[in-house]
Amino acid sequence: MHQLPQLDRRKPTLTVLLGEQPVPTLVDFDPALFSRVVLLASGTTEPVAYRLRRLLQNKVPDLEVAVAGVDHLHPQELMETVRHIIDHSDGMTRQLNGGTKLMALAAYQAAADQDVTMSYVVGKQVTDIQRRMSLERQWFPVDPEELFALHGVQLTGQRPDPYKEDLFQVAQRVTADWKNEDLLDEFLKLWRKRYKFKPFFEQGISKRQRNNRIAGKAREYNAYWQANRALKQRGVHVINEPAISICEWDGQQKKDISATGKGGSSLKKTPDLVLVNGYDIYVIEVKPNLSDAFSEKNSEQHDTYLFGEFLGRFSKGLVLASHLLKNENRRIPEDARERRGFKFDWYVLRGTDEQNKKVKKANIYLFPDDFLSAAPVTPPAASAAERTA
């Protein structure tokens, strides 16, 4: 038998017909406007509903959050649920982003003759689809761990290596001349001095492997601190080499369970960098050049494609090359930007003025300079002052 949600006294209510993406709910939710959120979830979107409920209740303790089960095969039951919510609401906004077209139509019809605002979220914009006007919403802040958790992903190990000016300067020189063994030795010596308990290659490897590991670490250290210096003050979270684990959903307990805690291996990806801008996630692989990044010998970028596909349309993969080889952008296959339906953007790391001019001439993004202008933001990242206001 169809069960209606138990609601107490009449409250300003946001009712959401959930799809697989939690982000539109965050964009539409404003704690200054709503005292209750009702999440309408089918069997496939139940995990999204309970993750959202947990987050909203933790962030806004006085908020009433209800999860109501709906069946996409029975639109009449959905209409009954929506009317029940209207009867127990003091003004209602009805978000129509998720669900099937049939469910959205049923929800619309149930509220069409009522004093209900019908909202739809596109990017960072919330629109009243009846009045054809924008709706003002205060940005609802979440930290990277909370945002990943909404997708059923655990983010750990994101403490960066502390900034060391001498190491950063040498890292930049190694990035520019990664075959210079004297520079490689200088970087390794400084690294061991600063981080003697954090070796990044094992003993017994060949000299070539050793040099490649040192050059790679210097390249990643350079990229991280360039991003941190340029983007952190603009509200972007810059995360160095996090471990990203995909959890398993426990339908009985209505929560995510870490697969590693059950004796399995849930590690999906350990990217070089992750950027979180607003509600958008960018997964980054740092490579010496674009040709190397898209070589079939390397698997990192393919893993990133799969991970980006898992997170959906609010995530994107970036290939960050430290150099642009001559005519390199013309040698990359046309389909290299898109595999399995997930797109990469190409960037080249800021270097010397001469190198930067070549990158611009090749019509390729320069990192981190072009990141904020090239990357879509949903919603806009808040400054530190705005977050503490």
General description of the model:
The chain is an alpha/beta fold. The protein has helices spanning 23-28, 46-59, 75-87, 101-111, 144-150, 165-176, 181-194, 207-231, 290-293, 300-311, 328-331, 353-361, 371-374, 384-388, and strands spanning 11-17, 36-41, 64-69, 89-95, 116-122, 125-128, 133-134, 153-156, 237-240, 243-246, 248-250, 255-257, 267-269, 273-277, 280-287, 315-321, 338-339, 342-349, 365-367. Helix 6 (165-176) runs antiparallel to helix 7. The protein is elongated, with a radius of gyration of 24 Å. Residues 261-265 and 379-389 have low confidence and may be disordered. This is DUF1887 family protein.
Indicate the CATH topology of the largest domain: Restriction Endonuclease
Number of helices: 14
What are the segments in which pLDDT stays under 50 over at least 5 consecutive residues? 261-265, 379-389
Overall CATH architecture of the largest domain: 3-Layer(aba) Sandwich
- Going across the major beta sheet, what is the strand order? 3-2-1-4-5-6-7
Q: Which quaternary structure do these chains form?
A: single chain
Instruction: Note the overall shape.
Output: elongated
Count of individual beta strands = 19
Termini separation comes to 48 Å
**CATH level 1 name of the largest domain:** Alpha Beta
**What percentage of residues falls in helices of 4 or more residues?**
25-40%
* Number of domain units: 2
What integer value in Å does the Rg equal? Answer: 24 Å
Provide the residue-averaged pLDDT. 84
Q: Sheet with the most strands?
A: 7 strands, mixed
Beta content comes to: 15-25%
Structural class by SSE content: alpha/beta
